[in-house]
């Protein structure tokens, strides 16, 4: 018995080891035919088209409406209109079912309802239990037909959109994909249009009502229903629910042509808070209608298809140059897609990784792939396609999408047959015909200091500006007297920093009381700030624990509980601006600044002299006429989260001079007339 147990144990140890195979040793069986469910199609007199699929596995019914609309149709000056309209249709409810009532109704029935508008289509969905379908279908149609567009929900959607704008430069890859699309389609193209603070501010409720009324009509609507129902009964319910929709006019979606000349460019986005490079390179792609589309997909899989792709095997595995590498040959239905190859690599190996990728593209053109490589690629690709049709719901959605885009109902089967028919010669032919490695555009998002001059080998480096435009100010600027402004600036500077002072970084220890929604919050702070280069190291004791912040070169890091993370631009920029408009920075850099005298102003019985100072930021100081010390500072500050400008005013008092530098030991800051924070300085000194 012991020998038998030992033998069995040894077999169990050996079998798993002998069963393991490499990815290229796996034999894939022939793909089984996909059994398509029966789809019932019918159209109402007003133009709504329906696709019905019965699925009795669960007592659920899902409704998906596709609407012929999209961001493509919004004016450039109101970019964001379509997306915000799509959000508010659902979030704002209808006149019959206001938002709060609608939310409660859906929650009590465990139902879900959503609306969305993307680039070239809109959608609305209802997921509901079978027993609640008859009650909630009329609600769904009413929300689509009669949205209320309440002002509070519009403002909330605008604020959320502006918050997203403020974060759009946070992720390295997001910046890379966006800016590479700009290179391919052009900055002013509808295909790369950006929603900005100003365009969101241009959007009115009337714009949203008009947008909805123009496009949410029966002739623009295709509806798919799948679930536990009887088809004949469902048809009658749909006629009653959707029959009242106005027919309207079918939207003509016009996709502008793309004029692309295959330039060779090298482009760079400097992101100082990263230690690796995100690289995108390529050129324009193609159209879905191209007869070579299947062969191009096989070619792409050979080159960039996951673990077995050549890029992964060579650039990542063999050369060790990339954390990730891949790409795609994009082919859209209505306008050309993008051919792009991407990698994430160390800053020091940026050019080496680019060269390795281009080498693999050229090798694909010059050397035929092997039969084994072709078969493996086709098998993997064809087997992966099965997951697009592993449920009746996915099959129905594919049918609706094909109908919407004008593709054949048999588009999937045609793709499968095209892939099966692709040969070694086809792969090399399309690689030669459609890929142009000598005429690629290269975009690198990385750290300029770490990358150095590696990119210059590819030509003149175009530095891409990704700064987010602020909305224009409503304030009218009155011109002042430059000569008197210079005199008052000189007096202020001498009052803040005594002439002959050997200036260095300044250490400040203080207690800051911030006004929050939860009440006052006290923070103990120590900071060492260098106003020569606007760098600062700060340690703050907060109710949440100790926070360390480091600001330099316009960026920064924040550490809390032993974890360090990059400081988002929407946090780093205000702190940097705070340093730039500080009276010490102004006194130190007075010769590089412009000042205008705006006259005198009496505040709380005190007559003050007013100067406006312009540099990287603009700030207005109200000075004590006798001493020249600042009594108040006024400035307009952009809140990136809300996309709105706030009017801030700081009031200075209790001045102390240490090491030749004067500091207000009490500063009270007001934002839009409300007290926001009070700083009480305990000590300050000049560091060696």
Automatic annotation (TrEMBL):
SUPFAM superfamilies linked to this entry: LuxS/MPP-like metallohydrolase
InterPro entries to which the protein is assigned, alphabetical: Metalloenz_LuxS/M16, MPP/UQCRC_Complex, Pept_M16_N, Peptidase_M16_C
All copies of domain Peptidase M16 N-terminal, residue ranges: 61-186
Single Gene Ontology MF annotation: metal ion binding
Domain Peptidase M16 C-terminal: start-end pairs: 202-380
Highest taxon of the lineage: Bacteria
Protein name: Predicted Zn-dependent peptidase
Family annotation (Pfam families): Peptidase_M16, Peptidase_M16_C
């Amino acid at each position: 018995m012991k020998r038998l147990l030992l033998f069995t144990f040894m077999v169990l140890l050996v079998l798993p080891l002998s069963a393991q195979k490499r990815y290229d040793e796996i034999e894939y069986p022939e793909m089984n035919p996909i059994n398509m469910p029966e789809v019932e199609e019918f159209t109402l007199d007003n133009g709504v088209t329906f696709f019905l699929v019965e699925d009795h596995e669960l007592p659920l019914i899902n409704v998906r409406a596709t609407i012929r609309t999209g961001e493509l149709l919004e004016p450039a000056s109101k970019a964001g209109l379509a997306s915000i309209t799509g959000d508010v249709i659902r979030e704002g409810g209808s006149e019959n079912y206001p938002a709060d009532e609608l939310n409660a109704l859906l929650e009590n029935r465990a139902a879900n309802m959503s609306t969305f508008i993307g680039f070239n289509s809109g959608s609305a969905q209802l997921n509901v239990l079978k027993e609640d379908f008859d009650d909630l279908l009329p609600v769904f149609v009413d929300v689509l037909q009669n949205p209320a567009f309440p002002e509070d929900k519009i403002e909330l959607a605008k604020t959320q959109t502006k918050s997203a704008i403020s974060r759009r430069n946070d992720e390295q890859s997001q910046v890379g994909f966006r800016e590479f699309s700009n290179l391919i389609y052009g900055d002013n193209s509808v295909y790369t249009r950006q929603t900005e603070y100003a365009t969101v501010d241009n959007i009115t409720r009337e714009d949203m009502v008009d947008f909805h009324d123009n496009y949410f009509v029966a002739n623009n609507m295709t509806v798919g229903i799948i679930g536990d129902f009887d088809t004949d009964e469902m048809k009658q319910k749909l006629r009653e629910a959707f029959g009242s929709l106005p027919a309207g006019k079918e939207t003509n979606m016009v996709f502008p042509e793309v004029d692309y000349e295959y330039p060779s460019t090298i482009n760079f986005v400097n992101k100082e808070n990263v230690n690796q490079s995100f690289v995108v390179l390529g050129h324009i792609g193609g159209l879905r209608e191209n007869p070579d589309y299947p062969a191009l997909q096989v070619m792409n899989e050979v080159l960039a298809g996951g673990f077995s792709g050549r890029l992964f095997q060579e650039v990542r595995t063999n050369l060790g140059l990339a954390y990730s590498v891949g790409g795609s040959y994009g082919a859209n239905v209505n306008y050309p897609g993008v051919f792009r190859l991407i990698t994430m690599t160390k800053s020091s190996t940026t050019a080496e990784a680019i060269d390795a990728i281009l080498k693999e593209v050229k090798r694909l053109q010059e050397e035929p792939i092997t039969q084994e490589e072709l078969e493996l690629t086709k098998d993997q690709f064809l087997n992966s396609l099965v997951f697009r049709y592993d449920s009746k719901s996915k099959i129905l959605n594919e049918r609706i999408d094909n109908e919407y885009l004008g593709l054949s109902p048999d588009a999937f089967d045609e793709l499968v047959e095209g892939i099966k028919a692709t040969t070694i010669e086809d792969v090399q032919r399309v690689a030669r015909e459609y890929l142009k490695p000598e005429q690629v555009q290269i975009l690198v998002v990385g750290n300029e200091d770490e990358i150095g001059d590696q990119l210059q080998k590819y030509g003149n480096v175009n530095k891409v500006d990704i700064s987010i435009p602020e909305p224009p100010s409503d304030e009218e600027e009155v011109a002042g007297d430059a000569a008197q402004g210079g005199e008052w600036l000189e007096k202020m500077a001498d009052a803040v920093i005594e002439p002959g002072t050997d200036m260095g970084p300044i250490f400040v220890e203080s207690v800051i009381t911030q006004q929050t929604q939860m009440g006052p919050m006290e923070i103990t702070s120590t900071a060492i700030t260098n106003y020569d280069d606007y760098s600062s190291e700060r340690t703050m004791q907060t109710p949440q624990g100790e926070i360390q912040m480091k600001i330099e070169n316009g960026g920064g890091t924040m550490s809390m509980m032993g974890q360090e993370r990059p400081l988002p631009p929407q946090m780093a920029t205000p702190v940097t601006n705070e340093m730039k408009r500080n009276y010490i920075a102004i006194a130190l850099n007075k010769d590089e600044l412009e000042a205008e005298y705006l006259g005198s102003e009496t505040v709380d019985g005190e007559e003050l002299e007013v100067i406006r100072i312009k540099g990287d930021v603009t700030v207005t100081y109200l000075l004590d006429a006798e001493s020249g010390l600042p009594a108040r500072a006024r400035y307009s500050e952009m809140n990136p989260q809300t996309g709105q400008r706030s009017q801030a005013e700081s009031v200075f008092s209790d001045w102390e001079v240490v090491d030749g530098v004067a500091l207000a030991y009490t500063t009270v800051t007001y934002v839009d007339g409300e007290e926001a924070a009070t700083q009480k300085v305990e000590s300050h000194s000049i560091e060696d």
